């Protein structure tokens, strides 16, 4: 299932997720640091949603309270909460 998330407090303007069951199939960041965003997407591909959240949640970028990896974790948390209510 494809899901779009609007991050806050980071350079990227959108995160597009493709999640199948509890597995992250694809992640695409729109805007931000292209190399880092592509790297994050490649690293989490095929991982369980809970594992991605556990590894990325709380990562900060410089003095910011968040980062693109943290915003990906936030997107996946929101995705989980919306899909739990559908089951």
UniProtKB/TrEMBL annotation:
GO terms for biological process: DNA biosynthetic process. Residues 7-79 form the TSCPD domain. Its EC number is 1.17.4.1. It is an enzyme of class 1 (oxidoreductase). GO terms for molecular function: nucleotide binding; ribonucleoside-diphosphate reductase activity, thioredoxin disulfide as acceptor. It catalyses: a 2'-deoxyribonucleoside 5'-diphosphate + [thioredoxin]-disulfide + H2O = a ribonucleoside 5'-diphosphate + [thioredoxin]-dithiol. Keywords: DNA synthesis, Nucleotide-binding. It comes from the Bacteria. The keyword Nucleotide-binding applies. InterPro entries: CHP03905, TSCPD_dom. It holds the Pfam family TSCPD. Belongs to the ribonucleoside diphosphate reductase class-2 family. This is ribonucleoside-diphosphate reductase.
């Amino acid at each position: 299932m494809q899901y779009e998330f609007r991050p806050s407090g980071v350079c990227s303007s959108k995160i597009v997720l493709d999640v199948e069951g509890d597995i992250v199939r694809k992640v695409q960041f729109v805007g931000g640091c292209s190399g880092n965003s592509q790297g994050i997407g490649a690293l989490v591909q095929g991982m369980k949603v809970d594992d991605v959240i556990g590894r990325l949640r709380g990562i900060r970028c410089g003095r910011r309270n968040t980062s693109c990896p943290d915003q990906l974790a936030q997107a996946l948390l929101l995705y989980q909460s919306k899909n739990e209510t559908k089951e």
